[in-house]
């Protein structure tokens, strides 16, 4: 486990062969057209001799993280940055003089509507705050956050608020020879600390926003150092760039969510694959079991309709939201 994160979690089961899968490998998905579309796609691309067969080396699936695999209200990246800032502000009073940092420090974590502040500039300040430090120090801060902080609404560790149907889908795809990748706007190094424990996705299959790094001598030993310089913002049009950097080809399955239009480019890039492909877009329309929110311009849903992407209704398509 990357970084030795000592959490007590309900871990996703390792990928299994067909003989080990239950009769229904997606029990938290409601029976219907969407579930059948997923089954039919996997059967088409994994059956040798099928005109749509995809060799295992090209079975790439990319998943956004926030709001796609786990709860994004509030954004975990923002909450980690806020928690880290509060531990550092006495030693680094200059942090508080930055306008975006001041805005962060004034946030009420119980006011979930503050997600509207989670813009490109917030992501940039989140990365900047954790720049100019050793990579090992950053990992320790991430581990402390996930071991001690809880969601302000559910009062559970953030790492427990993963979507059960998506864990099942990840396992199902892995059992059929897919490489499953995280591709999120969040800090790549933050996600790498929990990707294996929470999703069964190894750290080397995580794509995210990143800082420039260098190998330098610090305190008489060589360390990886996080420079306060943005290397990549892995959001919107940055996601295909991040995928190309890490994988070198478009995925054949991509899954994102409705929130800010941040996943349109990734799903469009997936649609450009020379292979038969599948695009999934999660719509948060269940205020009773999670949250209900969308986009003012409905951009993601409109593109999904135009391109024939499959929209997942949290309310209608999922029997369960979080693991029991």
Write structural notes for this entry:
This protein has 324 residues and is of the alpha/beta class. It folds into 2 domains: 2-73 and 157-210 and 231-317, Rossmann fold (3-Layer(aba) Sandwich), CATH 3.40.50.1000; 76-148, no CATH class. Helices cover 34% and strands 17% of the residues. The chain has 12 helices and 8 strands. The protein has helices at residues 33-46, 76-88, 99-105, 120-129, 135-148, 164-175, 188-192, 195-199, 238-246, 264-271, 299-307, 314-317; strands spanning 60-63, 133-134, 179-187, 206-218, 221-232, 253-257, 278-283, 310-313. The protein has an 8-stranded mixed β-sheet with strand order 2-5-4-3-1-6-7-8, with helices on both faces. Helix 2 (76-88) crosses helix 4 (120-129). The longest helix is centred in the N-terminal third of the chain and has 14 residues, at 33-46. It is globular. The two termini are 23 Å apart. 40% of the residues are buried. The model is unreliable at 1-21 and 114-118 (pLDDT under 50).
Estimate what percentage of residues fall within beta strands.
Answer: 15-25%
Most strands sheet: 8 strands, mixed
> How many domains in all?
2
Under the CATH scheme, which architecture of the largest domain would be assigned? 3-Layer(aba) Sandwich
Output the number of helix runs: 12
CATH superfamily of the largest domain: HAD superfamily/HAD-like
Distance between the termini: 23 Å
Backbone structural class? alpha/beta
Low-pLDDT parts are 1-21, 114-118
Residue-averaged pLDDT? 88
List SSEs in N-to-C order.
HEHHHEHHEHHEEHEHEHEH
Please identify the top-level CATH class of the largest domain. Answer: Alpha Beta
């Amino acid at each position: 486990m990357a970084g030795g994160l000592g959490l007590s979690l309900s871990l996703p089961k390792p990928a299994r062969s067909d003989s080990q899968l239950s009769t229904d490998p997606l029990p938290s998905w409601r029976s219907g057209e969407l579930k059948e579309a997923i089954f039919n796609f996997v059967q088409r691309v994994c059956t040798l001799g099928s005109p749509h067969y995809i060799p295992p080396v090209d079975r790439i699936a990319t998943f956004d993280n926030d709001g796609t695999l786990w709860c994004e209200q509030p954004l975990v990246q923002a909450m980690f940055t806020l928690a880290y800032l509060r531990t550092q502000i006495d030693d680094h009073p200059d942090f508080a003089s930055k306008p975006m940092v001041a805005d962060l420090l004034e946030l009420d974590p119980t006011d979930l509507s503050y997600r509207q502040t989670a813009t490109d500039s917030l992501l940039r300040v989140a990365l900047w705050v954790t720049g100019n430090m050793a990579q090992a120090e950053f990992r320790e801060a991430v581990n402390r956050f996930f071991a001690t902080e809880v969601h302000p609404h559910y009062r559970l560790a953030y790492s427990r608020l993963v979507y059960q149907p998506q864990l099942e889908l990840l396992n199902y795809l892995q059992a059929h020879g897919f490489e499953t990748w995280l591709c999120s706007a969040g800090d790549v190094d933050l996600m790498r600390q929990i990707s294996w424990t929470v999703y069964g996705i190894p750290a080397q299959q995580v794509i995210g926003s990143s800082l420039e790094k260098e190998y330098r001598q610090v305190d008489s030993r060589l360390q990886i150092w996080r420079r306060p310089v943005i290397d990549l913002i892995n959001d919107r049009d940055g996601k295909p760039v991040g995928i190309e950097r890490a994988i070198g080809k478009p995925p054949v399955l991509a899954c994102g969510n409705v929130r800010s239009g941040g996943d349109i480019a990734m799903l469009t890039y997936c649609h450009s694959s020379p292979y038969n492909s599948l695009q999934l877009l999660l719509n948060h329309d269940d205020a009773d079991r999670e949250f209900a929110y969308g986009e003012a311009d409905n951009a993601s849903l409109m593109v999904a309709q135009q391109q024939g992407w499959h929209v997942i209704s949290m309310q209608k398509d999922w029997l369960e939201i979080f693991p029991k």
